[in-house]
Amino acid sequence: MKRVAVILIALIVVVCGLYFLDQYWIHRYDQVIAREAARYHVDPDLVWSIAYEESYFRPWKNGRDGEIGIMQVTPGVLHDWASENGSPATQQRTAAEPGSFLRDPERNIQVACWFLEKAGEDFRDLPDREARMLAAYNAGRRRAADWNRVDSGAPPLNEQEFIARIDIPSTRAYVTSILERYRRVKSNRSNSLVQSTSIPERLNLVPGWNSSVAPAAITTGRRALRPHAH
How many CB atoms are located within 10 Å of the residue 112 CB? Predict the structure, then answer.
């Protein structure tokens, strides 16, 4: 019995250690995500959900079509960002060494948030624009605009109608998967806030966007889909 008890305790310690290690891993860039999302007026929970899907927060990941880093940004998107925002020196560096630039997690997240802001502007006045933004992130803004197009005078597509229009199976699965995770994050955050209102002393413990509101349930079902080609 003593041996069994020791084994059980060891297993519990290992499981708890793995859980907390995973929580650290998936939340270690929360402050960067919050800062860049605020800069470009996008939802940090959406950015976090994309990073989870794209790379599981691995800054060294390379995609099959040249995507790089945590958010799997393409050199083409980096070029567009640098042309609009970068100094001549930055433009030269990003053109010469896009991989080096995009493996910096902060730069990668910054460029990705810039792109998401652009995609959001494309669908600014539409309901459920997150699905459209995700489609643009994965398959390009032009394709997303095509899938969103309706006849003159017709009402805009709702979310499910838009997703049904996506004729690239991997993009449709990508959009659906991230939306599910994004909404679980939102739901858990709302539940956390409701609980905290009943315990006032907790209110001072979480001053910013972060952090551990994404429990193990949120971190399940990760897929490795072919990322975007802008």
Answer: 29
pLDDT digits (tens, 9 = 90+) for 185-212: 998 887 776 665 544 443 343 344 554 4
Alpha-carbon span 162 to 166, nearest angstrom: 7
CA angle 30, 107, 230 (to 5 degrees): 105
* Residue 191, amino acid: N
Instruction: Convert the pLDDT of each residue in 45-98 to its tens digit.
Output: 999 999 999 999 999 999 999 999 999 999 999 999 999 987 888 898 899 899
Using CB atoms within 10 A of its CB, is residue 210 exposed (0-12), middle (13-18) or buried (19+)? middle
Beta carbons of 181 and 53 less than 8 angstroms apart: yes
Contact 25, 57 (CB under 8 A): yes
At 105, list the tokens: 């997690």
- CB distance 210 to 34 below 8 Å: yes
Please say whether the beta carbons of 53 and 184 come within 8 A.
no
Could you tell me which residues come within 8 angstroms of residue 130 by beta carbon, excluding any fewer than 6 positions away?
43, 46, 179, 182
User: Alpha carbon 156 to chain centroid distance?
Assistant: 25
198: buried, middle or exposed (CB in 10 Å: 19+, 13-18, 0-12)?
Answer: exposed
Place of tokens 């793995």: 18
Which sign, positive or negative, has the C-alpha torsion 171, 172, 176, 179? positive
State the Cα–Cα distance between residues 128 and 163, nearest whole angstrom: 11
Does the pTM exceed 0.90? no
